[in-house]
Description:
Helices cover 71% and strands 5% of the residues. The chain has helices spanning 3-34, 38-60, 71-90, 107-129, 134-154, 180-203, 205-215, 217-222, 227-253, 263-276, 283-299, 306-319, 323-329, and strands spanning 94-96, 99-101, 164-165, 171-172, 175-176, 255-256, 321-322. Strand 4 and strand 5 form a beta hairpin. Helix 1 runs antiparallel to helix 6, helix 2 (38-60) runs parallel beside helix 6 (180-203) and helix 7 packs across helix 9. The longest helix has 32 residues, at 3-34.
Amino acid sequence: MDRPEALSAYKSDLIAGTVFVLLLAAVPFIASAIGDPFYVRIFTRMMVFAIMAMSLNLILGYGGMVCFGHAMFVGSASYVVAIAGQHAASGMPLVLGPLSIPGSTDALVVWPIAVAVSALLALIFGSIALRTSGLYFIMITLAFAQMIYFVAVSAQTYGGADGLPIETAPTLGALNTGNRKELYYIVLVCLVGVYVLIRQIVGSRFGLVLRSSSQNEPRLEAVGLAPYRYRLVAFVISGAIAGLAGALLASSQAYVSPADMSWVRSGELIVMVVLGGMATLYGPVLGAFFYLFAEYALGNVTEHWQLLMGPLIILIVLYGKKGLAGFWLSSRKGGSL
Protein backbone atom coordinates (compact mmCIF):
# COMPACT_ATOMS: atom_id res chain seq x y z
CA MET A 1 0.00 0.00 0.00
CA ASP A 2 1.55 3.34 -1.07
CA ARG A 3 1.73 6.46 1.10
CA PRO A 4 -1.43 8.24 -0.21
CA GLU A 5 -3.52 5.11 0.36
CA ALA A 6 -2.05 4.65 3.84
CA LEU A 7 -2.80 8.28 4.70
CA SER A 8 -6.35 7.96 3.41
CA ALA A 9 -6.89 4.78 5.42
CA TYR A 10 -5.49 6.44 8.55
CA LYS A 11 -7.88 9.38 8.12
CA SER A 12 -10.80 7.00 7.69
CA ASP A 13 -9.86 5.15 10.87
CA LEU A 14 -9.43 8.41 12.77
CA ILE A 15 -12.79 9.79 11.65
CA ALA A 16 -14.58 6.51 12.44
CA GLY A 17 -12.94 6.29 15.86
CA THR A 18 -13.77 9.92 16.69
CA VAL A 19 -17.40 9.48 15.69
CA PHE A 20 -17.62 6.30 17.77
CA VAL A 21 -16.23 8.03 20.87
CA LEU A 22 -18.54 11.03 20.41
CA LEU A 23 -21.52 8.69 20.16
CA LEU A 24 -20.46 6.98 23.37
CA ALA A 25 -20.05 10.37 25.06
CA ALA A 26 -23.63 11.22 24.11
CA VAL A 27 -25.16 8.05 25.61
CA PRO A 28 -25.85 9.49 29.12
CA PHE A 29 -27.59 12.51 27.63
CA ILE A 30 -29.67 10.34 25.31
CA ALA A 31 -30.56 7.99 28.18
CA SER A 32 -31.63 10.98 30.28
CA ALA A 33 -33.71 12.39 27.41
CA ILE A 34 -35.64 9.15 26.92
CA GLY A 35 -35.94 8.58 30.66
CA ASP A 36 -34.12 5.24 30.70
CA PRO A 37 -30.85 5.43 32.72
CA PHE A 38 -30.39 1.67 32.36
CA TYR A 39 -28.64 2.32 29.03
CA VAL A 40 -25.85 4.07 30.94
CA ARG A 41 -25.25 0.88 32.92
CA ILE A 42 -25.35 -1.29 29.77
CA PHE A 43 -22.85 0.83 27.86
CA THR A 44 -20.59 1.11 30.90
CA ARG A 45 -20.44 -2.67 31.01
CA MET A 46 -19.79 -2.82 27.27
CA MET A 47 -16.83 -0.46 27.57
CA VAL A 48 -15.37 -2.36 30.52
CA PHE A 49 -15.55 -5.62 28.58
CA ALA A 50 -14.05 -3.87 25.56
CA ILE A 51 -11.01 -3.03 27.72
CA MET A 52 -10.80 -6.68 28.79
CA ALA A 53 -11.01 -7.83 25.17
CA MET A 54 -8.33 -5.36 24.06
CA SER A 55 -6.00 -6.59 26.79
CA LEU A 56 -6.51 -10.20 25.67
CA ASN A 57 -6.08 -9.29 22.01
CA LEU A 58 -2.59 -7.98 22.76
CA ILE A 59 -1.38 -11.48 23.60
CA LEU A 60 -3.88 -13.55 21.61
CA GLY A 61 -4.15 -11.56 18.39
CA TYR A 62 -0.64 -10.10 18.21
CA GLY A 63 1.33 -12.55 20.32
CA GLY A 64 -0.40 -15.80 19.38
CA MET A 65 -0.85 -16.75 23.05
CA VAL A 66 -4.20 -18.47 23.61
CA CYS A 67 -4.73 -17.67 27.27
CA PHE A 68 -7.72 -19.53 28.71
CA GLY A 69 -7.31 -17.93 32.12
CA HIS A 70 -7.39 -14.25 31.30
CA ALA A 71 -10.38 -13.64 33.55
CA MET A 72 -8.25 -14.39 36.63
CA PHE A 73 -6.53 -11.01 36.18
CA VAL A 74 -9.91 -9.31 35.93
CA GLY A 75 -11.37 -11.11 38.94
CA SER A 76 -8.29 -10.67 41.12
CA ALA A 77 -8.32 -6.91 40.61
CA SER A 78 -12.05 -6.81 41.32
CA TYR A 79 -11.51 -8.56 44.63
CA VAL A 80 -8.74 -6.12 45.59
CA VAL A 81 -11.22 -3.25 45.20
CA ALA A 82 -13.96 -5.08 47.11
CA ILE A 83 -11.72 -6.28 49.94
CA ALA A 84 -10.16 -2.84 50.38
CA GLY A 85 -13.66 -1.36 50.56
CA GLN A 86 -14.84 -3.92 53.10
CA HIS A 87 -11.90 -3.25 55.42
CA ALA A 88 -12.41 0.49 55.04
CA ALA A 89 -16.07 0.11 56.05
CA SER A 90 -15.28 -2.11 59.06
CA GLY A 91 -12.27 -0.10 60.17
CA MET A 92 -10.30 -3.35 60.53
CA PRO A 93 -6.97 -3.53 58.65
CA LEU A 94 -6.08 -6.39 56.35
CA VAL A 95 -3.44 -8.51 58.07
CA LEU A 96 -0.98 -10.30 55.78
CA GLY A 97 1.70 -11.86 57.94
CA PRO A 98 3.66 -9.01 59.52
CA LEU A 99 1.86 -6.43 57.39
CA SER A 100 -1.22 -4.55 58.55
CA ILE A 101 -2.85 -2.83 55.59
CA PRO A 102 -5.70 -0.36 56.19
CA GLY A 103 -8.72 -0.47 53.92
CA SER A 104 -9.43 2.30 51.44
CA THR A 105 -12.08 3.56 49.06
CA ASP A 106 -9.74 6.00 47.33
CA ALA A 107 -9.55 4.89 43.71
CA LEU A 108 -6.16 6.59 43.30
CA VAL A 109 -4.87 4.13 45.91
CA VAL A 110 -6.97 1.02 45.35
CA TRP A 111 -7.06 0.89 41.55
CA PRO A 112 -3.25 1.07 41.09
CA ILE A 113 -2.87 -1.68 43.71
CA ALA A 114 -5.44 -3.79 41.85
CA VAL A 115 -3.55 -3.27 38.58
CA ALA A 116 -0.25 -4.12 40.30
CA VAL A 117 -1.68 -7.34 41.77
CA SER A 118 -2.91 -8.46 38.34
CA ALA A 119 0.43 -7.56 36.78
CA LEU A 120 2.27 -9.53 39.48
CA LEU A 121 0.06 -12.59 38.88
CA ALA A 122 0.73 -12.27 35.15
CA LEU A 123 4.46 -12.10 35.81
CA ILE A 124 4.48 -15.16 38.07
CA PHE A 125 2.15 -17.34 36.02
CA GLY A 126 3.43 -16.07 32.67
CA SER A 127 7.05 -16.84 33.55
CA ILE A 128 6.00 -20.48 33.94
CA ALA A 129 3.33 -20.85 31.24
CA LEU A 130 5.39 -19.16 28.52
CA ARG A 131 8.02 -21.87 28.77
CA THR A 132 5.45 -24.02 26.97
CA SER A 133 3.33 -23.46 23.87
CA GLY A 134 0.21 -24.65 22.09
CA LEU A 135 -2.13 -26.90 24.04
CA TYR A 136 0.21 -27.01 27.03
CA PHE A 137 0.11 -23.22 27.36
CA ILE A 138 -3.69 -23.25 27.18
CA MET A 139 -3.99 -25.91 29.87
CA ILE A 140 -1.47 -24.25 32.20
CA THR A 141 -3.20 -20.87 32.05
CA LEU A 142 -6.53 -22.61 32.63
CA ALA A 143 -5.08 -24.47 35.62
CA PHE A 144 -3.70 -21.26 37.16
CA ALA A 145 -7.03 -19.52 36.66
CA GLN A 146 -8.91 -22.36 38.35
CA MET A 147 -6.51 -22.16 41.29
CA ILE A 148 -7.33 -18.48 41.82
CA TYR A 149 -11.02 -19.21 41.24
CA PHE A 150 -11.15 -21.83 43.99
CA VAL A 151 -9.21 -19.55 46.35
CA ALA A 152 -12.00 -16.99 45.91
CA VAL A 153 -14.71 -19.63 46.35
CA SER A 154 -13.14 -20.89 49.58
CA ALA A 155 -12.59 -17.41 51.06
CA GLN A 156 -15.69 -17.36 53.26
CA THR A 157 -14.52 -14.16 54.96
CA TYR A 158 -15.07 -12.41 51.66
CA GLY A 159 -18.33 -14.04 50.64
CA GLY A 160 -17.05 -17.32 49.22
CA ALA A 161 -19.13 -18.59 46.31
CA ASP A 162 -21.81 -15.96 47.02
CA GLY A 163 -19.49 -13.07 46.20
CA LEU A 164 -18.86 -9.82 48.01
CA PRO A 165 -20.94 -6.64 47.75
CA ILE A 166 -19.23 -3.25 47.66
CA GLU A 167 -21.13 -1.01 50.05
CA THR A 168 -19.05 2.15 49.58
CA ALA A 169 -18.15 3.17 46.03
CA PRO A 170 -14.54 4.27 45.45
CA THR A 171 -13.89 7.96 44.96
CA LEU A 172 -11.58 9.38 42.31
CA GLY A 173 -10.64 12.82 43.52
CA ALA A 174 -13.83 14.87 43.37
CA LEU A 175 -15.57 12.14 41.37
CA ASN A 176 -17.71 9.44 42.96
CA THR A 177 -17.83 6.16 41.07
CA GLY A 178 -21.15 5.48 42.77
CA ASN A 179 -22.59 8.11 40.43
CA ARG A 180 -23.42 6.22 37.24
CA LYS A 181 -22.82 9.17 34.94
CA GLU A 182 -19.47 10.08 36.49
CA LEU A 183 -18.31 6.48 36.38
CA TYR A 184 -19.43 6.21 32.76
CA TYR A 185 -17.08 8.97 31.67
CA ILE A 186 -14.24 7.58 33.77
CA VAL A 187 -14.62 4.27 31.94
CA LEU A 188 -14.83 6.05 28.57
CA VAL A 189 -11.56 7.87 29.26
CA CYS A 190 -9.94 4.57 30.28
CA LEU A 191 -11.23 2.91 27.09
CA VAL A 192 -9.69 5.59 24.88
CA GLY A 193 -6.48 5.58 26.92
CA VAL A 194 -6.08 1.80 26.65
CA TYR A 195 -6.76 1.91 22.91
CA VAL A 196 -4.07 4.57 22.41
CA LEU A 197 -1.63 2.64 24.59
CA ILE A 198 -2.12 -0.62 22.70
CA ARG A 199 -1.91 1.19 19.38
CA GLN A 200 1.47 2.61 20.41
CA ILE A 201 2.68 -0.79 21.63
CA VAL A 202 1.64 -2.60 18.45
CA GLY A 203 3.22 0.05 16.23
CA SER A 204 6.52 0.05 18.11
CA ARG A 205 9.61 -2.13 17.66
CA PHE A 206 8.39 -4.15 20.64
CA GLY A 207 5.10 -4.79 18.86
CA LEU A 208 6.92 -5.86 15.70
CA VAL A 209 8.94 -8.42 17.65
CA LEU A 210 5.81 -9.61 19.47
CA ARG A 211 3.98 -10.20 16.20
CA SER A 212 7.00 -11.91 14.70
CA SER A 213 7.25 -14.24 17.70
CA SER A 214 3.81 -15.62 16.93
CA GLN A 215 4.81 -16.34 13.32
CA ASN A 216 8.39 -17.58 13.43
CA GLU A 217 10.00 -17.80 16.86
CA PRO A 218 13.13 -19.72 15.72
CA ARG A 219 13.96 -16.96 13.23
CA LEU A 220 13.91 -14.35 16.00
CA GLU A 221 16.24 -16.47 18.09
CA ALA A 222 18.53 -16.82 15.09
CA VAL A 223 18.94 -13.03 14.81
CA GLY A 224 19.73 -12.69 18.50
CA LEU A 225 16.35 -11.73 19.96
CA ALA A 226 14.78 -13.48 22.95
CA PRO A 227 11.07 -14.02 22.18
CA TYR A 228 10.41 -15.27 25.72
CA ARG A 229 11.23 -11.87 27.26
CA TYR A 230 9.08 -9.96 24.79
CA ARG A 231 6.18 -12.35 25.25
CA LEU A 232 6.46 -12.18 29.04
CA VAL A 233 6.45 -8.38 29.03
CA ALA A 234 3.40 -8.42 26.74
CA PHE A 235 1.73 -10.93 29.08
CA VAL A 236 2.35 -8.66 32.08
CA ILE A 237 1.06 -5.58 30.24
CA SER A 238 -2.02 -7.53 29.18
CA GLY A 239 -2.60 -8.66 32.78
CA ALA A 240 -2.22 -5.10 34.06
CA ILE A 241 -4.77 -3.75 31.58
CA ALA A 242 -7.13 -6.58 32.49
CA GLY A 243 -6.61 -5.55 36.12
CA LEU A 244 -7.73 -2.03 35.30
CA ALA A 245 -10.83 -3.49 33.68
CA GLY A 246 -11.41 -5.58 36.80
CA ALA A 247 -11.22 -2.51 39.04
CA LEU A 248 -13.70 -0.71 36.79
CA LEU A 249 -15.96 -3.78 36.70
CA ALA A 250 -16.08 -4.00 40.50
CA SER A 251 -16.87 -0.30 40.79
CA SER A 252 -19.54 -0.44 38.08
CA GLN A 253 -21.49 -3.42 39.42
CA ALA A 254 -20.81 -2.75 43.15
CA TYR A 255 -20.32 -6.47 43.59
CA VAL A 256 -17.66 -9.08 42.91
CA SER A 257 -18.02 -12.80 42.45
CA PRO A 258 -15.80 -15.80 41.68
CA ALA A 259 -17.75 -15.95 38.40
CA ASP A 260 -15.77 -12.87 37.31
CA MET A 261 -12.65 -15.05 37.10
CA SER A 262 -14.11 -18.35 35.93
CA TRP A 263 -13.02 -20.18 32.78
CA VAL A 264 -16.43 -19.36 31.30
CA ARG A 265 -15.63 -15.63 31.47
CA SER A 266 -12.24 -16.28 29.87
CA GLY A 267 -13.99 -18.17 27.07
CA GLU A 268 -16.38 -15.27 26.52
CA LEU A 269 -13.44 -12.88 26.17
CA ILE A 270 -11.84 -15.14 23.56
CA VAL A 271 -15.13 -15.20 21.65
CA MET A 272 -15.30 -11.38 21.75
CA VAL A 273 -11.78 -11.06 20.35
CA VAL A 274 -12.35 -13.62 17.58
CA LEU A 275 -15.78 -12.18 16.80
CA GLY A 276 -14.46 -8.64 16.52
CA GLY A 277 -11.27 -9.56 14.71
CA MET A 278 -7.97 -10.78 16.13
CA ALA A 279 -4.85 -8.67 15.55
CA THR A 280 -6.94 -5.58 14.84
CA LEU A 281 -7.18 -2.55 17.09
CA TYR A 282 -10.90 -1.87 16.77
CA GLY A 283 -11.91 -5.52 16.57
CA PRO A 284 -12.03 -6.37 20.30
CA VAL A 285 -14.11 -3.25 20.98
CA LEU A 286 -16.59 -4.16 18.26
CA GLY A 287 -16.66 -7.77 19.43
CA ALA A 288 -17.36 -6.84 23.06
CA PHE A 289 -20.10 -4.39 22.13
CA PHE A 290 -21.73 -6.79 19.69
CA TYR A 291 -21.58 -9.78 22.07
CA LEU A 292 -23.10 -7.93 25.04
CA PHE A 293 -25.69 -6.13 22.93
CA ALA A 294 -26.75 -9.44 21.38
CA GLU A 295 -26.88 -11.00 24.85
CA TYR A 296 -29.21 -8.28 26.12
CA ALA A 297 -31.35 -8.23 22.98
CA LEU A 298 -31.67 -11.99 22.58
CA GLY A 299 -32.10 -12.41 26.33
CA ASN A 300 -35.30 -10.41 26.06
CA VAL A 301 -36.54 -12.85 23.44
CA THR A 302 -35.70 -16.13 25.15
CA GLU A 303 -33.81 -17.36 28.19
CA HIS A 304 -32.00 -19.75 25.83
CA TRP A 305 -30.39 -16.86 23.97
CA GLN A 306 -27.18 -18.85 23.45
CA LEU A 307 -29.02 -21.01 20.90
CA LEU A 308 -29.49 -17.92 18.75
CA MET A 309 -26.10 -16.41 19.51
CA GLY A 310 -24.16 -19.50 18.41
CA PRO A 311 -25.22 -19.57 14.74
CA LEU A 312 -24.83 -15.79 14.55
CA ILE A 313 -21.22 -15.98 15.73
CA ILE A 314 -20.50 -18.83 13.31
CA LEU A 315 -21.83 -16.83 10.35
CA ILE A 316 -19.72 -13.78 11.24
CA VAL A 317 -16.56 -15.86 11.69
CA LEU A 318 -17.16 -17.75 8.43
CA TYR A 319 -17.94 -14.75 6.25
CA GLY A 320 -15.87 -12.07 7.96
CA LYS A 321 -12.18 -12.56 7.17
CA LYS A 322 -11.23 -10.66 10.31
CA GLY A 323 -14.51 -10.74 12.17
CA LEU A 324 -16.56 -7.58 12.46
CA ALA A 325 -13.48 -5.44 11.86
CA GLY A 326 -13.04 -7.23 8.54
CA PHE A 327 -16.23 -5.68 7.19
CA TRP A 328 -14.77 -2.23 7.88
CA LEU A 329 -11.44 -3.21 6.38
CA SER A 330 -13.13 -4.41 3.21
CA SER A 331 -14.84 -1.04 2.82
CA ARG A 332 -11.54 0.69 2.11
CA LYS A 333 -7.99 -0.29 1.26
CA GLY A 334 -5.46 -0.98 4.01
CA GLY A 335 -5.72 0.84 7.28
CA SER A 336 -4.56 0.42 10.85
CA LEU A 337 -7.43 -1.49 12.34
